[in-house]
Specification:
The complex is a heterodimer of chains A (259) and B (305). Chain A is mainly β and 259 residues long. Chain A has helices at 35-46, 64-67, 98-102, 137-146; strands spanning 5-12, 15-16, 73-79, 84-93, 113-122, 125-132, 163-171, 173-174, 181-183, 187-188, 209-218, 224-233, 239-241, 247-250, 254-257. In chain A, 12% of the residues lie in helices and 36% in strands. In chain B, α1 crosses α6. With 305 residues, chain B is α+β, with helices and mostly antiparallel strands. Chain B is built from seven helices and 16 strands. In chain B, β4 and β5 (122-125) form a beta hairpin. At the A-B interface, β4, α3 and β5 of A face α2, β4, β5 and α5 of B.
């Protein structure tokens, strides 16, 4: 952690879809956006080009994964509302070969359309804490404050456009407590080193937890260097867990943990 | 052709009466429906199809004169040389380069696209994005049984039955956005923008298939910004005022549209707004802060609200 402060902003929309890497033909969604999805969203705000069209117009030359890397960017994500998932069927086109494209209905029915049900987040709303050290930081703050987004930010799929509200930049205060502490954000179970259970089990009666395997550190070639078991409370309530060295307290925000 | 320079935001309302605005292929073609809010949904792809079909049928984007629609069906059929020839010519055309596709196909310039050409694969996010459309009030799905005109197979003496699903009435709203920065990648022009707005309105009117007849465009509100900014969520700022319960709404006489939330935000952001283009059906009635409000078919300056 090389920044002592964190940017706080809210991301929300009507629908969102952050596809799990292990679901291809029946896409399921993560309950909260993955770090790579949040970085992509901020890249859109800053005008960093898509990975597959990098340097096409050459407005920004740096690669998204370098601007936000495991070394300089840390994220904590807090659900601000109940996490609701609905299924919506989509009609997809086969785009594997150019032949398929022009013959959507051919005689042998080799190609054509597939109906696939997507699991989609409904009315997602998250508060994102970003601790980040980079020359573009002030530009990002200005853009978020003025809603001056270069490309349209979206929640996983381009038609699910996102709204972003900047909240504040606040100081990170270290947590001195070592016992179970209430956290407002999702927590990374893989980063807890203790003999004790990482979360207070007594709490479970009133809470609904979901644990998902998250890709946490994506490289330029899209390989993942670090995974983590991320636990999130599905009603937007807090989680009582053990603090680690990425846990901090923020004034008026409560405790957070960078994943 | 000049590429677009300004960001715009689109709010589009249309009505549908006794028809199915967008069937769900995985749910027996029932209208897409949000069971939590009891509102009917229309996918963004449905609206884009409407616009593409309009360009194809009425604007000459049918494969001639270097004007084409990229995502459209070209069917194979036996013994019809013309059809096969046109299919292969189309394929040949697009095998050349992505620049050629962008030059020819208006829908790639406007909505983006993915094409696996061997030498020159591209993925374009479109400058124009629509969110899922949603009704502004609660509605319901009605099931209708009828008899078909055909038998289900040979040697049958009776015709089959058919089942269809409809909504009795719905006022549906779409949010859209045109991003000028993305347009530099796909080279969307001002002319494309005009055709887009025309396609939204006239395309919806021209959907005269059995399941879509009864759709009418009612309101098209296009906010043109003078800086890279947009308000976001215009539809969510509208409210419906009605003496009837939501499920009893059957036509434009049954409700008024409350613009208070929308106009308040427009006024608050007026420094960033260049102009607002309004297209409106004369049957619609509006309210602002509890009073009747009139909107005309014209381009407004922001001070006029």
């Amino acid at each position: 952690m090389n920044s002592k402060t964190t940017l706080i902003f809210d991301v929300y929309g009507e629908y969102g879809h952050f596809r799990k890497f292990n679901t291809t033909t029946s896409p399921l969604t993560y309950s909260i956006p993955t770090p790579s999805a949040v970085f992509g969203l901020l890249g859109a705000v800053l005008g960093i080009e898509r990975e597959d069209s990098q340097n096409k117009i050459r407005e920004k030359k740096e690669h998204l994964r370098e601007v936000f890397s495991n070394k300089n960017a840390f994220l904590a994500i807090r659900p601000l509302s109940e996490i609701k998932k609905v299924n919506i069927g989509f009609n997809l086109l086969n785009t594997k070969s150019d032949n398929a494209y022009f013959n959507i209905e051919n005689k042998k029915n080799e190609h054509g359309r597939t109906q696939i049900e997507y699991e989609i987040l409904k009315d997602p709303k998250f508060r994102v804490y970003l601790s980040w050290e980079h020359p573009l930081k002030n530009e990002l703050i200005e853009r978020l404050k003025n809603k001056n987004f270069h490309f349209n930010p979206y929640l996983g799929i381009s038609q699910m456009t996102a709204n972003i509200e900047f909240v504040a930049e606040k100081e990170l205060i270290e947590i001195s407590k070592t016992g179970y502490t209430d956290f407002n954000t999702a927590i990374n179970l893989s980063e807890v080193q203790s003999e004790k259970a990482p979360i207070d089990i007594d709490f479970i009666k009133e809470r609904t937890f979901q644990v998902e395997t998250f890709p946490l550190d994506m490289q330029i070639d899209r390989t993942i260097k670090r995974y983590g078991e991320v636990l999130v409370e599905m009603n937007g309530d807090c989680v009582r867990a053990l603090p680690n060295n990425k846990s901090f307290s923020i004034e008026d925000e409560g405790n957070i943990q960078f994943i | 052709m000049e590429e677009i320079k300004n960001r715009s935001e689109i709010l589009f309302l249309f009505e549908i009466e006794n028809a199915n605005p967008n069937g769900d292929p995985l749910n027996e073609n029932r209208p897409r429906f949000d069971n939590e809010e009891n509102k009917v949904l229309v996918s963004d792809v449905r609206l884009k199809r409407t616009i593409r079909d309009y360009w194809f049928e009425y604007k000459g984007y049918n494969g001639s004169n270097n004007k084409d629609i990229f995502v459209r069906e070209t069917k194979y059929s036996d013994g019809n040389e013309e059809y096969i020839a046109s299919g292969s010519r189309r394929a040949e055309l697009f095998k050349e380069s992505s620049d050629k596709v962008l030059e020819t196909c208006i829908d790639v310039r406007v909505f983006g696209g993915v094409l696996p050409i061997k030498k020159d694969t591209f993925t374009f996010t479109g400058p124009v994005q629509f969110q899922m459309g949603k009704s502004l009030h609660q509605t319901e799905i009605i099931t209708e049984q009828g008899t078909g005109a055909f038998a289900s197979g040979d040697k049958k003496k009776q015709t089959t039955f058919r089942t269809e699903y409809k909504v009795p009435y719905a006022l549906i709203g779409f949010n859209g956005i045109i991003n000028e920065k993305v347009a530099t990648y796909t080279k969307m022009t001002n002319n494309d923008r005009e055709l887009l707005l025309e396609g939204i309105w006239n395309g919806t009117k021209n959907l005269i298939s059995r399941s879509k007849f009864g759709q009418n465009p009612l309101f098209l509100f296009t906010v043109n910004y003078n800086e890279p900014y947009y308000i976001g969520g215009l539809r969510q700022r509208l409210k419906i005022e009605s003496d009837k319960s939501d499920l009893q709404i059957r036509n434009t006489d049954d409700y008024k549209i409350d613009l208070t939330g929308l106009l308040k935000e427009i006024k608050a952001q007026k420094d960033k707004i260049e102009s607002i283009e309004v297209k409106v059906d004369s049957r619609l009635e509006f309210l602002n802060e509890g009073k009747k409000y009139n909107l005309e078919n014209k381009t407004y300056q922001v001070d006029e609200f």
